[in-house]
Design a protein that fits this description.
Blueprint (H helix, E strand, L loop, with lengths): L1 E4 L31 H25 L3 E6 L5 E6 L4 E10 L5 E8 L2 E7 L10 E6 L8 E3 L8 H14 L8 H4 L2 H9 L2 H6 L2 H14 L33 H13 L2
Parallel strand pairs: 1-4
Antiparallel strand pairs: 1-5, 2-3, 3-4, 5-6, 6-7, 7-8
Helix pairs in contact: 1-7, 4-6
Length: 261
């Protein structure tokens, strides 16, 4: 998987709507305890730029992977999947001035699938798929390049959101439409990062606090509370198991540690 990025995002900002209104000051989360300020900036930059590639690689592998080497130049890292499949991510090994180049190559013994991804905010620019099949035994290899519709993922995401608002398609989470706080609880509990650091009882407490804090903007939940559920008591001598947090962030954190080694 490799990428060469162009700073203007392939003309994707041509129709960007801006405002002259001043923005308010935002309070940022503090850096992790095991990172100094410079490392935290590098970590945040990696997550902002490459977390989608980290997730895409896991999707293409169909299983989790661990980083085994990170180039100190911050251009390449090497990983291995749970079943031992080697994989790499090349991060902006070069820059382009009027183009966006991002691709993923999945190689097999007698063929490959290559994905050419469009710039994220450019519109009406589909990606490309190239498939190579080599039957062997002297047969002529076959290369397939299907024509894709002139739409892209970001546009589809917006269209699906509008369909959900119009009631033309089910929403991913119906809590905002029904005003049912239990649906909020279910959605938050399904978040991998939340579930890895909080118990269900703690999640219910957090959701209650969140709904109370945002009550002025979430009026569909007015007067509604999470139903009381008996908490499962945990003996004080029981220790939490060491489990990874959100997989994408765990991989990013591992990459930063290897890059600084």
């Amino acid at each position: 998987m490799s990428s060469g990025y162009e700073t203007t995002l392939a003309a994707g900002f041509n129709d960007l709507i801006k405002s002259s209104e001043p923005t308010g000051s935002l309070e940022h989360d503090p850096a992790p305890d095991d990172m100094d300020e410079a490392t935290a900036r590098d970590y945040s930059g990696f997550v902002n730029y490459y977390i989608h590639q980290v997730n895409l690689l896991r999707h293409l592998l169909g299983e989790s992977y661990t980083v085994s080497y990170a180039d100190p130049a911050k251009v390449l890292f090497v990983a291995h999947s749970a079943s031992g499949v080697p994989c790499t991510i090349e991060m902006a090994a070069y820059n382009t001035t009027i183009d966006w180049q991002e691709s993923a190559l999945v190689a097999f013994e007698k063929g490959y699938v290559k994905l050419e991804l469009p710039a994220p905010v450019a519109y009406n620019r589909p990606g490309q798929v190239e498939i190579l099949k080599d039957p062997g035994n002297g047969a002529v290899p076959l290369t397939i390049r299907p024509s894709l519709p002139w739409i892209h993922a970001m546009r589809n995401q917006a269209l699906n959101f509008i369909k959900a608002v119009r009631g033309e398609a089910p929403a991913p989470c119906l809590a905002s439409f029904t005003g049912d706080p239990e649906l909020v609880m279910n959605a938050v509990a399904m978040d991998p990062l939340t579930a890895s650091v909080l118990t269900l009882h703690e999640i219910r407490e957090m959701v209650t606090e969140m709904l109370d804090a945002e009550a002025n903007w979430l009026r569909q939940f007015a007067g509604k509370k999470l139903r009381p559920i008996p908490a499962i008591s945990i003996p004080k001598n029981v220790r939490r198991a060491e489990v990874p947090v959100d997989p994408a962030l765990a991989i990013a954190n591992r990459f930063m540690k290897l890059a600084g080694a």
